[in-house]
Amino acid sequence: MILLYILILLALCRPAHGACGQTCGLRPMATTVDSSRVVGGVDVMPGYGAWAGIASLCPIWSPSLSVHVCGGTLISPKWILSAAHCFENISVPLGKWAVLLGATSLGQTAPFVEVRRIKRLIMHEKYNSIPVRHDIALLELDWPVECSSSIQTACLPGPSLKLSELKNCYVAGWGDRIVKSTGSDILQQAKVKFVDIQLCNSSGWLNGHVFDFNVCAGQGGVSTCQGDSGGPLVCQDKSGGFFWQIGVTSWGVGCARPKRPAVYSSTQYYYNWIWSKTGIKPEAPAVTPAPAPASTSTPLQTLPPSTTQPCPFPREKLLQFFNLMKDILRFLKGKIF
After folding, report:
1. Domain range for residue 44?
2. For residues 177 and 86, which has the higher predicted lDDT (pLDDT)?
3. Is residue 323 included in any domain, yes or no?
């Protein structure tokens, strides 16, 4: 009987899987290590990644060859957000691209890693490569993603969110490599400075090449680089409970140069475009605000609700448990008497 109680409790406390969109912007706990190969960033070690929505986009050139080209982020079970320029000058058909989710290493295989193919590409109608304008794209997947502790959706900010109130901004990617000096297939993450667009666009900085559909972030020694395109720029909400994806990695002058921050497509600017193209009604993040952690040299991370709250228990879980207990007692009573 006691064993039966334990099994019921475990079933009630088990984290929910497959519920994409019920929460967003979460960064589950992960182990990171400093790396001598990284300038200003850290390796994200295999396991439950600190970038639950990040994806690697890989054209499959042959049965034995696929290469990471760009990053992206999951915004719903069937949609990936990325950069338009990632799909220029590549002859591989869309159906032969692999979308890797839930991994920190590109060679990683595990139950929490999922691979999908691209069903449809939507590039912004006004995209231009020289100069770079409206560098944003949506990818419809061939099959919905099953969310888990290592795969969740990104949070996209609506027009009313004040970016100046956000804090602790981070970038991630497998490029050449988010401020890396040598190649690796391990996901990199780094804390970056958000740069006001007026300063970013001033003479001596990017001198008029930044537009109102961009945001800037980065500093000398820390920034994105080739191969990080399409990946996320996220900043922590003032409540400390989750992260907003405020940018999609677009372009830069070199990598991590002083007064040359990376330029991102603003997800806030394209908010209505994104949701009109996907046909999805956006919802506010269902995340309980958490106190902001103390300042640290490593990226701030938050646990998903299934692990931040001890089990037991929310009220609905207790009610579910007691209802099950009633059924068991009725069953036992019938057997005994």
Report:
1. 24-290
2. 86
3. no
Contacting residues for 151 by C-beta, under 8 A, at least 6 apart? 20, 52, 53, 74, 101, 102, 112, 114, 145
pLDDT exceeding 90 applies to what percent of the chain?
36
Q: Alpha carbon 260 to chain centroid distance?
A: 24
CA angle 72, 17, 244 (to 5 degrees): 40
User: Is 91 a catalytic site residue?
Assistant: no
pLDDT score of 287 more than 80? no
Give me the pLDDT at residue 326, please.
Answer: 62
Taking the CB of residue 101, how many other CB atoms lie within 10 A of it? 27
Active site residue 209: no
Q: Is residue 329, in this structure, part of any structural domain at all?
A: no
Dig out the tokens for 148 from the structure: 């888990």
- Nearest 5°: CA angle at 136, between 131 and 142? 145
81-85, 122-126, 206-210, range with the lowest pLDDT: 206-210
Domains held by the chain: number: 1
The tokens for 40 are: 């200003």
Catalytic residue among 66, 229, 265, 266: 229
Q: Is residue 121 part of a domain?
A: yes
Considering the domain boundaries, does residue 7 fall inside one? Answer: no
Segment among 63-77, 133-147, 242-256, 307-321 with least mean pLDDT? 307-321
- pTM for the full model? 0.74
**Active-site hit among 135, 149, 250, 266:** 135
How much of the chain exceeds pLDDT 70, in percent? 64
Which of the residues 85, 105, 148, 266 is marked catalytic? 85
43 included as an active-site residue: no
Q: The domain that contains 89 carries what CATH number?
A: 2.40.10.10
